[in-house]
Amino acid sequence: MLTLNLGPFTLALHHLLLLLALGIATLVGWRVARRGGENPESTLFSLFLLGFVAARVGFVLRYWAQYRDDLFQVIDIRDGGFLAVPGVAAVVIGAFWTGWRRQPLRRPLGWAVASGLLFWVLASFSSQLYERSTRLPAISLRDAAGYSVPLSRYSGKPLVINLWATWCPPCRREMPVLHQAQKERPDVVFLFVNQGESPRSVMTFLATAGLDLNHVLFDGSGQLGQLVGSSALPTTLFYTADGRLLGSHLGELSRASLTRALEAFEPAPADAATAVRSVP
Fold this sequence. Notes:
- The chain is built from 11 helices and 9 strands.
- The chain is α/β, with parallel strands linked by helices.
- It has 2 domains: 11-132, no CATH class; 140-264, Glutaredoxin (3-Layer(aba) Sandwich), CATH 3.40.30.10.
- α1 runs antiparallel to α2, α1 (13-34) packs antiparallel against α6 (103-132) and α5 runs antiparallel to α6.
- The relative contact order is 0.14.
């Protein structure tokens, strides 16, 4: 499951885990404060915002080459560009600083931050393990000519599957980013699976937008989104050459967030060294 539906709203699983972690931290801090000390609720919210900003700043600095030509993208957090390590470090340092300055807050805040971080780390790790145990769905979709095409046809290379629709503004905004990546990364297959629209309207849109996509399929009933557990558009899935899910991205991709996601396809240092030694 990649998303959770709450009535008309769709919440990404990793966002839900963050909110639950904040809720657990707030509850634990309140319970500990009842036995003596100061309620850390407002401080926890401030630390959450501090971690949010630090995670964004860390990401922007790490991928500055993708942001420097369009500074507006720095504050456009819709791309989901955050780094966990700077965010967690900021929360921990902020908690230590606040506890050192305010002794009545020290014990409740310490328990609250520790419990919230522990839940978030364990839940995120479990979610990643589950996600990476899933495989490329064994289904067939239709191409523009109406022929049935099994997804297994695209195995053998790293595979990026983008679920999208022309009526979806974030889908349209990220399409040039994916189009450019398709040209820059011939070692990766980019598969664009349209959700619920006719081939004629989709191909007209692509021609008008000047997008020459190599692989476009049509999912009239949205079965692929149901199988992978996502009802949000756009959703982008990253599979290994043997069909194992490496990760997913819900929402709009920027050049920076796509660059980070594609890093999962880079060979590990040990593998790269082995490949170099095998060259005659």
